[in-house]
Amino acid sequence: MRGVQKALTKLSQSKLVVRDDLYDISSICATARAMAKSQTGLSLLFVDYLQLVRCDLGRNSTREQEVAEVSRTLRLLSLELNCLVISITQLNEQGKSRESRSIQQDATAIITIKMEEGKENSENRTIVIPYQRNGPCGVHTTLRFNGRTASFLNHHE
Predict the structure, then answer these.
(1) First and final C-alpha spacing in the chain
(2) Are residues 63 and 113 both part of a single domain?
(3) Do 120 and 78 share a domain, yes or no?
(4) Calculated CA dihedral for residues 22, 27, 29, 33, nearest 10 degrees
């Protein structure tokens, strides 16, 4: 129980703001811009889950076009506000769907988390960087996943 209290105290003293009431890209952008102009500023924005963010492109638009527009808008927002935007998403494994391709095209880096094949109960996860604009691709490591705390640890910890 002391660990929980310590974590809550640390969290309450941080500048972290969690918003779970923003569902469309316009609201996300407006809120991010306002936060960037505030006294505390904005240095990091998480969007969880990119495919659930709505974007109104009109009646004839497809979901793939909407996801592509959300992805592109987040990239431009990151450049505009000079802040890191991390979008949590589920990409098609081979990157063959139009949605996955458009997200990958806008990304500065893609980091994937994979479970060991055929071992769903394994604690090991392979972290891979299959793509990044300004660094090496194919970098990978295996970490131990602790489901109780949703954290990743080195194998020796």
Answers:
(1) 21
(2) no
(3) no
(4) -100
Helix (H) or strand (E) holding 126: strand 124-132
State which H helix or E strand residue 48 sits in: strand 44-48
| 62 shares its domain with 93 | yes
Domain span holding position 131: 108-157
CA 153, 108, 27, 68 torsion-angle sign: negative
In DSSP terms, 46 is beta-bridged to 86
Sequence-ordered list of residues with C-beta below 8 angstroms from that of 48, at least 6 positions apart, any chain: 87, 88
Number of structural domains in the chain: 2
pLDDT of 44 higher than 90: yes
pLDDT tens per residue across span 91-117: 766 656 777 888 888 999 999 888 877
